């Protein structure tokens, strides 16, 4: 059954080639697909925000286009992200809305799969009134940053292999407009520890979850 829910050294004198320093973890490949083409400023802001949130937890990403994948790429771990709708700030209107789930990650038979969807249309509608108060030249960056925060939430489910939601921070079950538009947004300490502990473990390994 497929379901989905909303809001990843040695030291020896005889072996001089080994370093006493801890080896850095291999980057995780994120394969992305966009329903419609998106402005460069939005794409850069998405990637930058995800890296800003996840890098302190020991997670580093290689961003790859799903359409450009040839099938011979090698990755230690990967996730596939589909961006729905238009990831831009065109057509904003001065009204508030509650559009529903902004992102979701797929689950099959209690196992969280490395497939997530992010709904750019819903995020834009949710933020549109406040985005109009910003200078036009900053809207794409701020919007992309908000999209990146929704994506970071879904990556938490994938790489921590948990359906758990926190009471605060990026792993919350629901966001406010202010949280998506604030200057900084991070994981709560408990969820940060969970993510750090998941690095290097195979996805789905001995971590089945139920339907939240």
Task: Kindly describe this structure.
Helix 1 packs across helix 3 and helix 2 packs across helix 3. With 212 residues, the protein is of the alpha/beta class. The model is unreliable at 7-23 and 205-212 (pLDDT under 50). The protein has a single domain (2-8, 25-198), classed as Collagenase (Catalytic Domain) (3-Layer(aba) Sandwich), CATH 3.40.390. Helix content is 32%, strand content 18%. The chain is globular and about 45 Å long.
List keywords for this structure.
single chain; 212 residues; alpha/beta; Collagenase (Catalytic Domain); six-stranded mixed beta sheet; 6 strands; globular; disordered C terminus
Record the SSE blueprint.
Elements: E1 2-6, E2 28-34, H1 40-54, E3 61-65, E4 78-84, E5 103-108, E6 111-119, H2 120-131, H3 136-160, H4 177-181, H5 189-198
Parallel strand pairs: 2-3, 2-4, 4-6
Antiparallel strand pairs: 1-5, 5-6
Distance between the termini: 14 Å
User: Please, what is the average pLDDT?
Assistant: 83
Question: Element order, helices and strands?
Answer: EEHEEEEHHHH
| Total tally of structural domains | 1
CATH class: Alpha Beta
The share of residues in helices is 25-40%
Structural class: alpha/beta
Low-confidence stretches: 7-23, 205-212
Strand content: 15-25%
Biggest pleated-sheet summary? 6 strands, mixed
Biggest sheet: strand arrangement: 1-5-6-4-2-3
What is the third-level CATH name, the topology?
Answer: Collagenase (Catalytic Domain)
Tell me the CATH architecture: 3-Layer(aba) Sandwich
Number of strands: 6
* Overall spatial form: globular
The total count of helices amounts to 5
Q: Whole-number radius of gyration?
A: 18 Å
């Amino acid at each position: 059954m497929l379901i989905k829910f909303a809001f990843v050294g040695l030291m020896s004198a005889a072996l001089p080639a080994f370093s006493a320093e801890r080896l850095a973890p291999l980057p995780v490949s994120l394969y992305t697909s966009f329903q419609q083409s998106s402005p460069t400023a939005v794409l850069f802001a998405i990637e930058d925000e995800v890296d800003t949130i996840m890098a302190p937890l020991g997670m580093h990403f290689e961003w790859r286009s799903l359409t450009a994948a040839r099938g011979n790429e090698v990755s230690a771990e990967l996730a596939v992200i589909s961006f729905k709708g238009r990831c831009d700030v065109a057509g904003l209107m001065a009204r508030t809305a509650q559009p529903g789930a902004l992102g979701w990650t797929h689950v099959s038979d209690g196992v969280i799969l490395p497939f997530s969807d992010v709904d750019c249309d819903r995020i834009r509608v949710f933020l549109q009134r406040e985005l109009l108060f910003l200078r036009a030249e900053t809207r794409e960056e701020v919007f992309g940053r908000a999209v990146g925060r929704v994506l970071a939430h879904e990556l938490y489910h994938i790489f921590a292999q948990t359906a758990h939601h926190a009471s605060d921070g990026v792993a919350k079950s629901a966001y406010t407009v202010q949280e998506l538009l604030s200057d900084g947004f991070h994981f709560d300490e408990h969820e940060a520890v969970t993510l750090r502990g998941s690095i290097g473990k195979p996805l789905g390994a001995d971590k089945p979850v139920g339907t939240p």
